[in-house]
Amino acid sequence: MRRPNFEKSVLEFEPVRQKIRTITDQLAKQKLPSEEREFVNAVVRYFPSGEPSLPQSSARNLLHYLDQNLTPAEIDMMLLKTIERHRNAWSDVCTAFASLKVAVASQ
């Protein structure tokens, strides 16, 4: 099985990671209403940090586990947990966005 070249991607996307870190740092310094702050925090939590040294990428994690010679049942469980983690994080984003919409509409 041919694996993606993560090292190339790490270098290729470094400018994007730097921009995201800068935006995140600037947003953290802003005084935002609670609904806006919660929405921003939920979006930031949804996306991995992009730090190459941290094994946060779902793709990297799955490739790592696939290299562990897991049984098909273990692979299924790992995939289900990954999907569930992403769904839960996206649900948090949607909930925060709904609260933000209500707050803006009531102003």
What do you see in this structure?
- The chain is mostly helical.
- It has one domain (6-105).
- Helices cover 74% and strands 0% of the residues.
- It has helices spanning 6-12, 14-29, 34-46, 58-66, 72-105.
- Helix 3 (34-46) runs antiparallel to helix 5 (72-105) and helix 4 (58-66) runs antiparallel to helix 5.
- The longest helix has 34 residues, at 72-105.
Topology:
Elements (H helix, E strand, L loop, with lengths): L5 H7 L1 H16 L4 H13 L11 H9 L5 H34 L2
How would you summarize what this structure contains?
The protein is an all-alpha fold and 107 residues long. The chain has helices at 6-12, 14-29, 34-46, 58-66, 72-105. The protein is built from 5 helices and no strands.
Keywords:
107 residues; mainly alpha
Which percent range describes the beta-strand content? under 5%
The structure class reads mainly alpha
Task: Name the assembly state.
Answer: single chain
Order of helices and strands: HHHHH
Strand elements, count: 0
Averaging pLDDT over every residue, what do you get? 81
Shape: flat
Unreliable stretches (pLDDT < 50, length at least 5) are none
> In angstroms, what separates the terminal alpha carbons?
55 Å
Helix percent reads over 70%
Number of helices: 5
Largest sheet: none
C-alpha-based Rg, rounded: 18 Å
* Structural domain count: 1
